[in-house]
Amino acid sequence: MEASGELGIEKLTVITWGLRKELELEGRRIRILPVEEWV
């Protein structure tokens, strides 16, 4: 039971970390694109 619980927490951490990274990349893309358009 403990092992599966730990695995669940690890999976959630990886998923949230992945989502955070995706949001960061999207945020950069959104910020960078308008700058490129103006230049």
TrEMBL record:
Superkingdom classification of source: Archaea
Name listed for the protein in its UniProt record: Uncharacterized protein
